[in-house]
Every structure is written in structure tokens, then in C-alpha cells.
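Predict structure. Chain length: 231.
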Amino acid sequence: VEDAAGEAAVAPVVSLCPENLAYVIYTSGSTGKPKGVGVAHGPIAEHCRVTAPLYDMDETSREFHFIAFSFDGAHERWLTALTCGASLVLRDESLWPAEKTLAAIGRHGVTNAGFPPVYINEMAAWAEATDRRPPVDLYSFGGEAMSRAGYDRVRRALRPRVLLNGYGPTEAVVTPLVWKVGVETECDGAYVPIGRPVGDRRAYVLDRRLQPVPVGVAGELYIGGSGLARG
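Prediction complete.
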């Protein structure tokens, strides 16, 4: 392929600093008005570095890449896989039905895969109805809340070793908080927890005066640390 493209045999030397912009992704946020979120190389590189061991990934892993590239979660998944030497299994641009996805996961020996909650619940329903499920090591989900009923169906029907819920606003670089549990872990609330900070990040629940609230008291979530987008 390189010969046909006429490219040089040696990669070009590109000088990069952690502060250099890696990508801009647009989010409507809570206002409905799109805004560009700028993520620098340093934060996304650090996020991928700490994500690989968190997802139990190494050069023996095989990641099924499902999430659309318009979401920052997609870039976490392919970047993390390549930075730790794992393999990537790609789908085409069409939205596959659950049975096709599960067949591909089994055929390619996928160990790690991430989906929106609504889709992984469709997969669980199909696996439950057919009693067929590929031996995946870790399923992750995120982008919206996972209900307790959905979580119970996923762990009962798909039976991976580990389940992981990733949470976070785009401005905090993909998934600044993660809840990772074994498949036998039950969910006590109406929805699965959003977990604890990932890497060099800190999470606080504060009141209107920006003071920490007591345990069990509602407040606003604030995220700090170096793993954030510009601004």
C-alpha cells in the first residue's frame, strides 16, 4: 500500500507538545447551542494511557469498534487499542442489528467492546432469546444512564467477566469517571453508578456556594485536574 501511494519509507518528523490541539468536537451541552470543545494531545494521551489498564487491555486484546466517530467515546476506543498494541475489529458504516454484531464478535474473538445502553440491551435480549453469546471479557457502556433492569439483563444474558460504565461531559475528555465491577455485582439504585475519577482528575459534589455537600445530599458535580479540555 505504501509503495502504491508513493509515500516516503520514513515517517515525517512532527513536533508536538502536550498543549497542541488534538481535535475539536461539537456538543450541544444543556443549552442546545452547539459549541466546539478543544482537546489537546496531553489530556487525551494521558486518558488513553490510564484507560488501557482500566479496561484490562494489552497486545492480546481485540476491540470491537462500534461507536460512531461523531462521539468522543469512539476516539477513546480506537486510540486506546492502538496505543497498547491491541487489535481493532471495524464494522462498516451501516448500523448492524444485534445478531450481526454478536456473530462478528464471536467470529473475530473480540475481548472488549463498548456500546450505548440501548444497543447493548438489544444484544442482551437477542442473546437471551437464542441462548447464544460470545465469550467477551469486558463490555462497557455509556453516553446515557443504564437502568438497573437493563444492567441486570446485560449481566444475566451476556455474562462477561467485567462490566464498566463510563460517564462524563465532553469537556472532561470522554470518560473522566468510571464504574467497573465484576459480572456478579448487583446494582442497588434505579441506575448504575457513575463511579470514580480516572487518572489525574478530581470529582466534587458542591452546593451553590461551591462548598462540598454531606453524603446523601444533592449538589452539582465539578470535575478538576489536568485531564480536561481547553478552557
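Summary: The first strand starts at residue 21 and ends at 27.
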